[in-house]
């Protein structure tokens, strides 16, 4: 029977394919005493052998579809399977204590994981804990006779159905086969959603209980424009959505004609449309979509994709590739923003009740200066190769900015003294904490630019977790409170002769962009796939009319919805 589910539209486009449930099975077991030791060690042996051949197969496919580097993690897993200190210890425990294999495996794995995690001075060994966990899960699944999902083995078109997708899960999906994804939890600005937009696949997040409502292999339609998920569609549904997919493709082809066009309003005013990227690989998408700049390079993915802290040279190579790749166009590189929902296995952070209010971004950089200075040196060296803008995330106070800037100046002086070439660069901050937005007039005297991070600015202003679907109604970019903060930031920058951009998701939103044009925002940075849509929209706007509309939006409208209506009516 056909059912329609609803979630939060997180990435545009329409997809029709069968469901692939990326759900962790229940691996609980109970401890029991055994009589037949040989039978139990045979069960263990067979689970290890099955795990090994599965890993071999995953490794082969992963190396072909994702690249040799991504595949190497599976070598590490196979090494653990072959390590007598680990699997030998499980066998020994079964023999000595006459317990079932599941319980012996769990005990030994826990000992190893605790041991690795305690090695706080050796991040490489700490990371092995995650490998032991993964391998243990695989052996356990075979012992219990349940199946683990293996997304790397997908070799036909599917729609991924998951409770949530971490940034690293999303990075492992092969775009050739993964046509869309839907998740139980998350909001429009969760990193999985941002990732979907950069992969250019439709996505719906925060859809409630899709992992139980949708069964494996059921046919599913995902409409990433509206947030509708149709399960077991009728032939008429399929025809309707095929038509919508066709129209969307035609619309995209129309926008594509604007690729090399200058971004101009109807009255000839230019606005800079930039792309947000996560890795140098995203550069192609940015230039294909006509980006005039990179307005946000989120460097944390460099750290997340690496098994240990990336070296200065690794970072230099990545930054240089992006800066050179943009051929003199500006590139805003944001220093590491780890914490919140982004974790590094080799940099254990304290468990926090409110990670988004905790130890993240510049707060980590200022206390772990070894990590920060390495990144700054790599950036300063890369500045010689084009137009660099360095940006600090999550700045709350002037002192934090001054401290970060002083460290940058120190590293520059050291490099210059060593005879290393350093180019020109600007230094700016993200405005994503209300404290900094309110004091933007003070900050504007000291920084070269602002980039407003609405994803965080909205969550902190509204006190509503950006990834929590229960409070996603409070993600209100057009709420007059948010707009007034944005106006204050833009006006403060202009008063000091500085520029203000926006790199939060709101910059690429067709309702928000006209208001921002009216407020005089200088630079709009967004997922690359939104650029042409916004360029096309801007061609229709008159800046004086938008300024009047923005004034109403700030001073006459009372709610977010009032402003949606105001923009729609004005653009009619
Ligand atoms: C762009 C932003 O940063 P991130 O989404 O990486 O937190 C933001 O907060 O708006
Ligand atoms: Mg942010």
TrEMBL record:
<dbReference type="GO" id="GO:0008965">
    <property type="term" value="F:phosphoenolpyruvate-protein phosphotransferase activity"/>
</dbReference>
<dbReference type="InterPro" id="IPR050499">
    <property type="entry name" value="PEP-utilizing_PTS_enzyme"/>
</dbReference>
<dbReference type="InterPro" id="IPR036637">
    <property type="entry name" value="Phosphohistidine_dom_sf"/>
</dbReference>
<dbReference type="InterPro" id="IPR024692">
    <property type="entry name" value="PTS_EI"/>
</dbReference>
<dbReference type="InterPro" id="IPR000121">
    <property type="entry name" value="PEP_util_C"/>
</dbReference>
<keyword id="KW-0418">Kinase</keyword>
<keyword id="KW-0963">Cytoplasm</keyword>
<keyword id="KW-0479">Metal-binding</keyword>
<protein>
    <recommendedName>
        <fullName>Phosphoenolpyruvate-protein phosphotransferase</fullName>
        <ecNumber>2.7.3.9</ecNumber>
    </recommendedName>
</protein>
<dbReference type="InterPro" id="IPR006318">
    <property type="entry name" value="PTS_EI-like"/>
</dbReference>
<keyword id="KW-0808">Transferase</keyword>
<dbReference type="Pfam" id="PF05524">
    <property type="entry name" value="PEP-utilisers_N"/>
</dbReference>
<feature type="domain" description="PEP-utilising enzyme mobile">
    <location>
        <begin position="155"/>
        <end position="227"/>
    </location>
</feature>
<dbReference type="Pfam" id="PF02896">
    <property type="entry name" value="PEP-utilizers_C"/>
</dbReference>
<dbReference type="InterPro" id="IPR023151">
    <property type="entry name" value="PEP_util_CS"/>
</dbReference>
<dbReference type="Pfam" id="PF00391">
    <property type="entry name" value="PEP-utilizers"/>
</dbReference>
<dbReference type="InterPro" id="IPR036618">
    <property type="entry name" value="PtsI_HPr-bd_sf"/>
</dbReference>
<feature type="domain" description="PEP-utilising enzyme C-terminal">
    <location>
        <begin position="252"/>
        <end position="542"/>
    </location>
</feature>
<comment type="similarity">
    <text>Belongs to the PEP-utilizing enzyme family.</text>
</comment>
<dbReference type="InterPro" id="IPR040442">
    <property type="entry name" value="Pyrv_kinase-like_dom_sf"/>
</dbReference>
<dbReference type="InterPro" id="IPR008279">
    <property type="entry name" value="PEP-util_enz_mobile_dom"/>
</dbReference>
<dbReference type="InterPro" id="IPR018274">
    <property type="entry name" value="PEP_util_AS"/>
</dbReference>
<keyword id="KW-0460">Magnesium</keyword>
<comment type="function">
    <text>General (non sugar-specific) component of the phosphoenolpyruvate-dependent sugar phosphotransferase system (sugar PTS). This major carbohydrate active-transport system catalyzes the phosphorylation of incoming sugar substrates concomitantly with their translocation across the cell membrane. Enzyme I transfers the phosphoryl group from phosphoenolpyruvate (PEP) to the phosphoryl carrier protein (HPr).</text>
</comment>
<keyword id="KW-0762">Sugar transport</keyword>
<keyword id="KW-0598">Phosphotransferase system</keyword>
<dbReference type="InterPro" id="IPR015813">
    <property type="entry name" value="Pyrv/PenolPyrv_kinase-like_dom"/>
</dbReference>
<feature type="domain" description="Phosphotransferase system enzyme I N-terminal">
    <location>
        <begin position="6"/>
        <end position="128"/>
    </location>
</feature>
<dbReference type="InterPro" id="IPR008731">
    <property type="entry name" value="PTS_EIN"/>
</dbReference>
<keyword id="KW-0813">Transport</keyword>
């Amino acid at each position: 029977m056909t059912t329609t589910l609803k979630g939060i539209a997180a990435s545009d486009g329409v997809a029709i394919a069968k469901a692939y449930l990326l759900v962790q099975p229940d691996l609980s077991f109970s401890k029991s005493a055994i009589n037949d030791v040989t039978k139990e060690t045979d069960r263990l042996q067979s689970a290890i052998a099955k795990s090994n051949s599965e890993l071999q197969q995953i490794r082969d496919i992963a190396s072909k579809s994702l690249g040799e580097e991504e595949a190497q993690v599976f070598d590490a897993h196979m090494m653990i399977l072959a390590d007598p200190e680990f699997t030998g210890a499980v066998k020994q425990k079964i023999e000595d204590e006459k317990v079932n294999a599941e319980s012996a495996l769990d005990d030994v794995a826990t000992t190893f994981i605790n041991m690795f995690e305690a090695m706080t001075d050796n991040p490489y060994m700490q990371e092995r804990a995650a490998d032991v966990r993964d391998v243990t899960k695989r052996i356990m699944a075979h012992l219990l006779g349940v199946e683990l999902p293996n997304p790397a083995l997908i070799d036909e078109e599917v729609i991924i159905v998951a409770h949530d997708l971490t940034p690293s899960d999303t990075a492992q999906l092969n775009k050739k086969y993964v046509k869309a994804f839907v998740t139980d939890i998350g909001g429009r600005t969760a990193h999985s959603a941002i990732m979907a937009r950069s992969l250019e696949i439709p996505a719906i997040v925060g859809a409630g209980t899709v992992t139980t409502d949708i069964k494996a292999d059921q046919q599913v339609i995902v409409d990433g424009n509206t947030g509708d998920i149709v399960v077991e569609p009728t032939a008429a549904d399929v025809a309707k959505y095929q038509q919508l997919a066709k129209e969307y493709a035609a619309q995209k082809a129309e926008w594509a004609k604007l690729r090399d066009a200058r971004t101009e309003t109807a009255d000839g005013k230019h606005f800079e449309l930039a792309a947000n990227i996560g890795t140098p690989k995203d550069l192609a998408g940015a230039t294909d979509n006509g980006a005039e700049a990179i307005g946000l390079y989120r460097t944390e993915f460099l750290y997340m994709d690496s098994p240990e802290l990336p070296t200065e040279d690794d970072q230099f190579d990545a930054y240089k590739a992006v800066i050179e790749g943009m051929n003199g166009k500006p590139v805003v590189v944001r220093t590491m923003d780890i914490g919140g929902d982004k974790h590094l296995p080799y940099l254990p952070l304290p468990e926090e009740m409110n990670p988004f209010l905790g130890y993240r971004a510049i707060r980590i950089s200022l206390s772990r200066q070894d990590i920060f200075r390495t990144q700054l040196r790599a950036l300063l060296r890369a500045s010689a190769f084009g137009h660099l803008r360095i940006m600090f995330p999550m700045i709350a106070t002037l002192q934090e900015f001054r401290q970060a800037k002083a460290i940058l100046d120190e590293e520059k002086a050291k490099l210059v003294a060593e005879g290393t070439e350093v180019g020109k660069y600007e230094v700016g901050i993200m405005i994503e904490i209300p404290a900094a937005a309110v004091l933007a007039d003070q900050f504007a005297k000291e920084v070269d630019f602002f980039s407003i991070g609405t994803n965080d600015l909205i969550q902190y202003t509204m006190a509503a977790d950006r990834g929590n679907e229960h409070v996603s109604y409070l993600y209100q970019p057009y709420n007059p409170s948010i707009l007034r903060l944005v106006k204050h930031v833009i006006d403060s920058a202009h008063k000091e002769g500085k520029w203000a951009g926006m790199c939060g998701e709101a910059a690429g939103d067709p309702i928000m962009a006209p208001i921002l044009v009216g407020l005089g925002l200088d630079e709009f940075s967004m997922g690359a796939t939104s650029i042409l849509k916004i360029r096309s929209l801007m061609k229709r706007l008159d800046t004086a009319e938008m300024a009047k509309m923005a004034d109403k939006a700030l001073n006459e409208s009372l709610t977010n919805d009032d402003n949606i209506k105001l923009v729609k009516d004005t653009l009619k």
